[in-house]
């Protein structure tokens, strides 16, 4: 196997793993946050505005972890720097 | 497949490139400036009858002001121009996704990085203006000077996160639409586009709110005696 196919195999597998593992944590975290926020809104409907604003900010923070994983997966597939490096050497 | 509109070069002269990101940003800027100029040219004072455009603009500005006041109760109006501009720029450029052929300039890392740098400069600027330069920089040495590098690291990484978050969300929206267009051509991509519009609005809101939270934290830090 030459360098190009090794890089192709590794980066495809790595991006799949990155998405698969990297989305588990944020998904569970967001589920927990939303469940807690819904329970709080049910207890105190008057504070719904404040709770949902804080919830949005928190969700964005949690979600950014998943988005880092997504960006890395996209870079590995569509704009792989090592791939371009090997092609440039030829 | 194009990941960012940066790679679409429309005009080139020597080392000068004009790419799609810049052109679309200029379009948004012209749109925002022209609309506000046209509307504010003939403002109705007091209880005089207002035009629809003035009403719409007042609703937008008042909503932003209320949100800012909830985060920073005292002196919130000082931050309205900066945070409101961030929100309007991002929201309009995300919203124009409904125009066919539009590439949101926020889907490019250079735009979002520039916006995040603006926030990164504005936070110490407002902090120093409010507290003075010595008080502002003294908080880096609290509770002990050993923690100063960690303060710096957290401020850098949150600005980085601000840029990557907006870029990742907008880029993934257009990318998912492009991938789905190849799999299920007619109906499903339209649904995902609608979801993308919602995501764009939420991201604009989150970007502005986070900028405001960072500024409020920098401004109020000294007042709690901490």
Give a nutshell description of this structure.
The complex is a heterodimer of chains A (90) and B (226). By secondary structure, chain A is mostly helical.
Could you outline the blueprint of secondary structure elements for this entry?
The complex is a heterodimer of chains A (90) and B (226).
Chain A: H1 3-43, H2 48-78, H3 81-89
Helix pairs in contact in A: 1-2, 1-3
Chain B: E1 9-13, E2 16-19, H1 20-41, H2 52-71, H3 80-95, H4 109-131, H5 133-138, H6 148-183, H7 188-220
Antiparallel strand pairs in B: 1-2
Helical content class of chain A: over 70%
Strand content of chain A: under 5%
Q: Identify the CATH class of chain A.
A: Mainly Alpha
- Sheet of most strands of chain B: 2 strands, antiparallel
- The total strand number of chain A stands at 0
Give the domain tally of chain A: 1
Helix content estimate of chain B: 55-70%
Distance between the termini of chain B: 51 Å
Mean pLDDT of chain B: 84
Quickly give the structural class of chain A.
Answer: mainly alpha
Largest interface, counted with CB-CB under 8 A?
A-B, 15 and 20 residues
How many helices of chain B? The count is 7
Net shape of chain A: rod-shaped
Account of the 3D structure:
- The complex is a heterodimer of chains A (90) and B (226).
- Chain A is mostly helical and 90 residues long.
- Chain A has a single domain, classed as F1FO ATP Synthase.
- Chain A is 90% helix and 0% strand.
- In chain A, helix 1 (3-43) packs antiparallel against helix 2 (48-78).
- The mean pLDDT of chain A is 87.
- Chain B is mainly α and 226 residues long.
- Chain B has one domain.
- Chain B has 7 helices and 2 strands, in the order ββααααααα.
- A two-stranded antiparallel sheet of chain B has the order 1-2.
- In chain B, helix 4 (109-131) packs antiparallel against helix 6 (148-183).
- Chain B is globular, with a radius of gyration of 20 Å.
- The chains are: A mainly alpha (90), B mainly alpha (226).
- Chains A and B meet through helix 2 of A and helix 6 and helix 7 of B.
């Amino acid at each position: 196997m030459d360098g190009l196919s090794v890089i192709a195999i590794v980066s495809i597998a790595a991006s799949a793993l990155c998405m698969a593992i990297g989305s588990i944590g944020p998904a569970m975290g967001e589920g927990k946050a939303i469940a807690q926020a819904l329970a709080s809104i049910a207890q105190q409907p008057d504070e719904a505005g404040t709770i949902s604003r804080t919830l949005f900010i928190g969700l964005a923070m949690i979600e950014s972890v998943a988005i880092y994983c997504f960006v890395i997966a996209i870079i590995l597939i569509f704009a792989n720097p090592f791939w371009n490096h090997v092609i440039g050497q030829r | 497949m194009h990941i960012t509109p940066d790679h679409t070069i429309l005009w080139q002269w020597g080392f000068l490139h004009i790419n799609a990101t810049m052109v679309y940003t200029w379009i948004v800027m012209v749109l925002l400036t022209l609309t506000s100029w046209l509307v504010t040219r003939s403002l109705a004072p007091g209880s005089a009858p207002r035009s629809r455009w003035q009403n719409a603009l007042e609703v937008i500005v008042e909503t932003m002001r209320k949100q800012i006041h909830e985060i920073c109760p005292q002196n919130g109006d000082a931050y309205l121009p900066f945070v409101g501009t961030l929100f309007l720029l991002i929201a309009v450029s995300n919203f124009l996704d409904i125009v066919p052929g539009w590439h949101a300039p926020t889907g490019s890392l250079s735009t979002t990085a520039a916006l995040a740098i603006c926030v990164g400069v504005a936070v110490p600027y407002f902090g120093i203006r409010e507290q003075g330069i010595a008080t502002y920089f003294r908080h880096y040495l609290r509770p002990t000077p050993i923690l100063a590098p960690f303060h710096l690291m957290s401020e850098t990484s949150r600005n980085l996160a601000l840029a990557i978050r907006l870029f990742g969300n907008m880029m993934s929206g257009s990318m998912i639409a492009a991938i789905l267009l190849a799999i299920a051509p007619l109906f499903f991509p339209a649904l995902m586009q609608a979801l993308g519009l919602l995501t764009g609005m939420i991201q604009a809101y989150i970007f502005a709110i986070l900028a405001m939270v960072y500024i409020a934290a920098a401004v109020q830090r000294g007042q709690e005696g901490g």
